[in-house]
Design a protein that fits this description.
The complex is a heterodimer of chains A (74) and B (399). With 74 residues, chain A is mainly α. Chain A is built from 5 helices and no strands. Classes of the chains: A mainly alpha (74), B mainly alpha (399). Chains A and B meet through helix 4 and helix 5 of A and helix 16 of B.
């Protein structure tokens, strides 16, 4: 809910909050566009520390990557 | 604190599953997590988490509101005794202010939290802390004489229509406190605008020359030639600037003192709760619009004296400062990307001054400017994010 704190600690040219939200709603197309191919769950460790809402961000990203893999298999 | 902890521990079994008050568990949970950091532990991922959470964040905003609240209480009494030309000590002014202000705060919190508790118990989810700040903001943006039942209706309306129907805290499109004010502004305009509502004259008759107009209303007729509550003109523009910077002018309870608001802004920025991008760009936006009016005003429409109010004076009048510090920075309704925040804030500054000066039906435009930009914020974000996507796509093609 508080914005801007993830971007502050995230080094890539990617919008972390928008990416995480697209994973949560399972929007494959948006995930691709927002750069899911360029990240690993560990990249979000600092975001997870800083997140005011205490979302388990690494878990979310892991799920997102799993979804992508499933998408390619089918 | 130990006493509270023991007490909460003692009543806990009654609220847990199978207990007598099982249905009221959300209420217990809300109280416990408000008093103490919740005892949740991490299962995986980063095992160290920042100690700040939603309730602590909200609480910091309330702390930041305290200077504006305290000055508002004092100023309510100060304006009252000034209008009646009665001698009064500092304590009498504060007591009068408390007598006017405290009921508003109680009604706002009572109704708002009541509606929220009922919703949470029906839906069975944890109570979200969103109303803690809104409940304090609502009384601060009301005139001190607004009837309590109106505050109750407006608060219930805002919590239901602006927040709960969208899914609760964090999902709302419009700022909750401003929705309450906008509701009253359009439903009961006689109690929310005009010259009668900003200074309480009950229990006596006002002095000759008393007007009770805010500086905003005066500017339409007189330009920067302002007078105070008793009708006495300020010696110079810098005098009236000083009065409005310090806050000794009529207005809504919390909005008058720019100094108190700046103290609050410093707290918000130092703790990192609010975005400096929004505040700064809104301030610049307001200054730019004021400057444009100052330059073009005498040529385009010499009769409209409002255009000639100096831009630096525009910034300290009315609710502009309160709006950009406490309302525009609400992270839920503001733009969410860095670049989006700058655009969002700048537009609020521009629109706030524009509405105020150009449309005489709305002496203060910041409320409508913020509500309008709340609606536009997702669109701004969409284009900012889309720009990022396109940039990365282009990189992909060249690689």
């Amino acid at each position: 809910m508080v914005t801007g704190e993830l971007e502050k600690v995230f080094p890539f040219d990617i919008y972390p909050m928008q990416l995480i939200k697209s994973i949560m709603v399972n929007d494959i197309d948006a995930m691709e566009k927002l750069g899911i191919y360029e990240v690993l769950p560990e990249d979000f460790a600092l975001c997870e520390f800083a997140c005011t809402s205490k979302v388990n961000i690494q878990q979310v990203v892991e799920n997102g990557l799993a979804d992508m893999r499933k998408e390619f298999e089918s | 604190m130990k006493v509270v902890e023991n007490l909460l521990g003692k009543v806990r079994p009654a609220f847990e599953k199978g207990g007598k008050l099982e249905k009221l568990y959300p209420m217990y949970d809300a109280l416990e997590t408000f008093a103490f950091v919740p005892d949740h532990t991490t299962k995986r991922g980063a095992h160290i988490r920042d100690s700040i959470d939603m309730k602590r964040t909200m609480f910091l905003v309330i702390v930041a509101l305290i200077p504006a609240l305290l000055f508002g209480i004092y100023n309510t009494g100060y304006q009252h005794f000034l209008a009646l030309q009665q001698e009064a000590t500092f304590m009498e002014m504060v007591l009068f202010g408390l007598w006017k202000t405290v009921p508003l705060i109680i009604v706002s919190y009572g109704v708002g939290l009541g509606v929220e508790f009922i919703f949470c118990i029906i839906k069975g989810h944890a109570i979200n802390e969103g109303f803690l700040v809104s409940g304090m903001l609502i009384p601060l943006i009301m005139p001190m004489d607004v009837p309590l039942w109106m505050v109750a209706i407006a608060t219930a309306f805002a919590v239901l229509i602006a927040k709960e129907v969208f899914g609760g805290t964090g999902m709302n499109i419009l700022n909750v406190a401003l929705t309450a004010r906008a509701f009253l502004f359009f439903a009961y305009p006689t109690k929310m605008s005009g010259n009668k509502v900003w200074v309480s004259t009950e229990g006596g008759t006002a002095v000759d020359g008393f007007t009770g107009e805010t500086l905003l209303a005066q500017a339409i007729e007189n330009g920067a030639n302002f007078y105070d509550t008793t009708g006495a003109y300020y010696a110079s523009v810098s005098d009236s600037f000083m009065a409005s910077f310090l806050g000794f002018i009529p207005g809504s309870i919390g909005e008058t003192s720019t100094l108190a608001i700046l103290i609050g802004a410093a707290i918000l920025l130092w703790t990192g709760v609010a975005s400096w991008r929004i505040m700064l760009s809104a301030l610049i936006g307001g200054a730019v619009m004021g400057l444009i009016f100052n330059i073009l005003g005498p040529q385009v429409s010499p009769d409209n004296l409002y255009l000639q109010v100096p831009w630096w004076h525009q910034l300290v009048m009315g609710g502009f400062m309160f709006g950009i510090v406490f309302m525009a920075t609400d992270p839920v309704t503001a733009a969410q990307t860095f670049r989006g925040k700058v655009i969002y804030g700048f537009s609020i500054g521009i629109l706030g001054i524009l509405i105020r000066v150009v449309n005489p039906a709305y002496p203060e435009g910041i409320m409508l400017a913020i509500l309008f930009m709340n609606v536009m914020a997702p669109t701004i974000d969409h284009y900012v994010v889309q720009g990022n996507i396109n940039k990365r796509l282009k990189r992909l093609k060249t690689a």
